[in-house]
Every structure is written in structure tokens, then in C-alpha cells.
Amino acid sequence: MIALLLTAILAKGAEFGPTLEGAVVPAEADGYSPEGGADTASVGCSDQYLENGVQLPDLPLFFTRQTPESEWGTSEMIDAIVSATRHMRWLMPDASPVTIGDISHERGGFQSGHLSHRGGVDADIGIYSTGGKQNLRGFDSLGDNFDVVANWALISAFLDTGNIDFILLDHAHIARLRAYTTKAGLLTVAEAEEIFPLEAHPWDRTGIVRHAPKHDNHMHVRVLCSDGSRSGR
Ligand SMILES: [Zn+2]
Questions:
Q1: Residue 225 Cα, ligand 1 centroid: separation in angstroms?
Q2: Residues paired with residue 98 on neighbouring β-strands, in sequence order
Q3: Cα(226) to centroid(ligand 1), Å
Q4: How many CA atoms lie within 13 A of 167 on its CB side?
Q5: pTM of the entire structure?
Q6: How far is the CA of 116 from the centre of ligand 1 (A)?
Q7: Range of lowest pLDDT (112-116, 119-123, 128-132)
Q8: Cβ contacts of residue 229 below 8 Å, gap of 6+?
Q9: Coil, strand, or helix at residue 173?
């Protein structure tokens, strides 16, 4: 079973290079259009309000919804969650369904307890403790109990959607992921450097997976807009 799993993950790692390129956005695609001159009509989506929001469907085989009334997102957000969690069900059938926390209100706007989560482009996603377990009732601080194999598989599945802007996670978990993926040969050092740069300080906004305080019990996933641009930040 373990050999099978490793084969599957290694196969996934081999696909990683080409799909990663789809997740990297050129600097110009930052909401500014030379023709438009302003960043209103040219912005693909907003991080402040939500238009044409989609509610996360009830798919208990793949994930557990904690707060369905606060789980509205852009179609890219909802598609990314369904796609990544469906992949986990296939890859690790014995793992718990993924716990999904707040995304946004139906029309976005201020959400209590969050600085972001206003435009349907941010979601709080549960991470696995040892044995592929998720707390179905909320987010637990994991400490050393971080299941590096399952969590890398989940992050990798999100990155494979090609629609991820960045992921926030505690730096201790990021260090575990970096060590695991490079030692196991799942990523080259260059790929690891692009995803979780070694020299990045917590206040740097470089790399795809970045440190943020209070993210040792869940990760925060930000998606790109439908046209591949970033929402405001
Ligand atoms: Zn969040």
C-alpha cells in the first residue's frame, strides 16, 4: 500500500513542472491595464466583494462544510476545492474528508474574524494530522502531529488546478514540507525554491506557500481570478 502510494505521489511529482507554470502569474497581470488606465473594469475579480458567487456544494465524501452560509466563492475557488478534495479521496481513500472553514458571504464583504475572505477568493482549509486525520468539527493546532505526506498531496492537488495565487501556512509546517519533498525527490531544489523559498522571511511575499501567524491548524488558499489575474491585495 505504501509502495503504491509513493508511486502515485512520485507520478504526481513528475507532472508537477508543467502545471506549476500555469500557477505563476506575470507581474503585469496585477489588475492594471494600460488601455483601461484604471483597475476597475480591467480587474478579473475583487477581494472585497463577490459577484456571481457559487456556494460550496454538499459533498460529504470529499469534505465537511463547517459554515455553509459563509462558504460562497468564485467558481475558480469552488472548483479548486472540489477538484483537490476529490483527488485526495482517490489518492488516499482512508483519509478523512477535508474540513472546509470560511470562504465568503454570498455577496462577499466584511466577514467577522477575518481581514480578508471578502471576495470569494480566500478559503480556510483543514490540514491533516498524523494518519490522514482531519478534525471534522474545526481546526486543531497540530504541532509535530503534521502528516507531511497527506498535506503535501493536498497542497499539490490545489497547485495542480493552475488557479492558485498563494497559500498561507505556519513556517514550521512549511519547513517540514520543504524537507520532505526535496529529500523524497518529489521536487527539485529549484521547484521547492519557487514554492517555498528557503530564504524568505515571514514578511516577504515571495513563493507560493508563505508563512502567516495563526496558520498552524489550517491553511488559507487564495485563488486567481478567471482570467488568471490576481484580485487586489
Ligand atoms: Zn483565512
A1: 17
A2: 63
A3: 20
A4: 32
A5: 0.80
A6: 7
A7: 112-116
A8: 25, 29, 30, 31, 43, 44, 45
A9: helix
Q: Cell triple for residue 118? A: 471578502
**34-79: per-residue pLDDT in tens?**
333 334 434 578 888 999 999 999 999 999 999 999 999 999 999 9
> Cα(129)–Cα(18) distance, rounded to whole angstroms?
29
Question: Residue ranges of the domains in the chain?
Answer: 2-223
Question: Helix-strand-coil percent breakdown of the chain, rounded to 5?
Answer: 30, 15, 50
Residues 6 or more apart in contact with residue 21 via CB below 8 angstroms: none
Fold of 2-223: Muramoyl-pentapeptide Carboxypeptidase; domain 2 (3.30.1380)
The Cα 106–Cα 56 span in angstroms is 11
CA dist 51 and 44 (Å) reads 11
Contact 219, 168 (CB under 8 A): yes
Residues in the chain: 233
